[in-house]
Design goal:
Distance between the termini: 45 Å
Order of helices and strands: HEHEHHEHHHHEHEHHHHH
Helix content: 40-55%
Oligomer: single chain
Strand order of the largest sheet: 1-2-3
Number of helices: 14
Bound molecules: tryptophan
Radius of gyration: 22 Å
Largest sheet: 3 strands, parallel
């Protein structure tokens, strides 16, 4: 695994004329990312772990943020839920601060080039290479091979297509996506080697350590929509009283003292991490502020702090969802912008692959 990958700051300092030989490469540093719309709301882990960072990054980069609805159907989805969840995700991106006038915000299935490029990348991927993806291995081991769709197997090639179509320099994603980014880089390099320089080879922007949010009921597992119980989650769209209830019943640790110890006190440590993230205070400051106080105090204050941070986002998201036609219009503008980048890249790939281009 490469350890010395460039950071966002390194990329910003890079001279992009290096990629000037690529016909479709960007003149400004670009990033691209997406989160699957597979729950009724994004949760606090998605917000603090991804969205907050995306919002920051869009200041310095030409950013593309999208909703990977094609990825969502790698496991069965109710069509009505998927439509709604796609709009909800878009509303939450915007409510959290993604500015659709600055960044390109779009829905994956609006851009047919994603599936078109996927096929070409699939043909460039070895069976063994794909079979080594740990996300696929874990999921298929859990469900059994018969119950696992081929889509889960080819998921990383779709992800590589999502990325490579936009020639981004950086891809901000969670640690769990490291292997998929590695594969994307390999496929970009392989295509470039076989057919001539075409793709920018992107780097992953992985979160710095810390600020990882865990399940409230099981504070050694990451907060995740696939948790066995919803009680361990805080969702952006939860009402304040639900948030207060979940935090109140969060699992804490034996002992009564509030201090930070991920190994022996994962429950309290998680609450402290969340508190620090939503208020931009340090854990050390919080620990000293709560010296001699009880868990209950911390929970009451934390519920208040989380609500304060999420309430404006929830309100804004609900407003946007109240006018789905306007939301769809914003996404259509994003799709136009996205397609104007993706289509010429796919065209170049088709031509280099030896596909006879239709007469114009
Ligand atoms: N696989 C990513 C996840 O589950 C979502 C995703 C799909 C993505 N395509 C992408 C992220 C392209 C970054 C870039 O989190």
């Amino acid at each position: 695994m490469s350890t010395s990958q460039p950071t966002p700051a390194d990329i910003l300092a890079t001279d992009l004329s290096e990629t000037a030989h690529l016909t479709s490469a960007a003149k400004h540093p670009r990033v691209l990312s997406g989160m699957q719309p597979s729950a009724d709301s994004l949760h606090l882990g998605n917000y603090l772990g991804a969205l907050v960072n995306w919002v920051k990054i869009q200041e310095d980069f030409e950013a593309f943020y999208f909703i990977p609805d094609l990825h969502a159907i790698t496991v069965p989805q109710d069509p009505k839920d998927l439509v709604q969840r796609t709009r909800v995700a878009a509303a939450q991106y915007i409510a959290a601060g993604i500015n659709p006038e600055r960044s390109t915000l779009f829905v994956q299935s609006h851009i047919p080039e994603h599936t078109q490029l996927t096929w070409i990348l699939t043909c460039l991927t070895g069976m063994g290479e794909a079979a080594r993806m740990t996300q696929f291995k874990d999921k298929s081991a859990r469900e059994g091979t018969e119950a696992t769709g081929v889509g889960l197997f080819t998921y990383p090639m779709l992800m590589a297509a999502d990325i490579l179509l936009y020639q981004p320099h950086g891809v901000p994603v969670g640690d769990d996506q490291r292997q998929h980014i590695e594969l994307t880089r390999t496929l970009a390099q392989r295509f470039n080697y076989r057919y001539g320089e075409t793709f920018v080879v992107p780097v992953g922007f992985f979160p710095e350590t810390g600020a990882r949010i865990y399940d409230l009921q099981d504070p050694v597992s990451k907060m995740s929509k696939s948790a066995p119980s919803p009680n361990g989650l805080i969702n952006i769209l939860d009402e304040p009283k639900v948030i207060a209830k979940r935090i109140k019943s969060a699992v804490t640790d034996t002992g009564t003292e509030i201090h930070y110890d991920r190994e022996h006190k994962p429950g309290i440590s998680n609450l402290l991490d969340i508190y620090a993230s939503v208020t931009d205070q340090s854990v050390a400051e919080l620990v000293s502020a709560y010296e001699g106080k009880m868990y209950g105090h911390l929970k009451v204050d934390l519920a208040e702090a989380v609500t304060q941070r999420l309430e404006p986002i929830r309100t804004r998201a609900l407003e946007l969802l109240d006018d789905p036609a306007e939301l769809d219009r914003i996404l259509a503008v994003g799709a136009d912008k996205a397609r104007s980048i993706a289509a010429p890249v796919l065209d170049e790939v088709y031509e280099k692959s030896g596909f006879l281009r239709p007469a114009r």
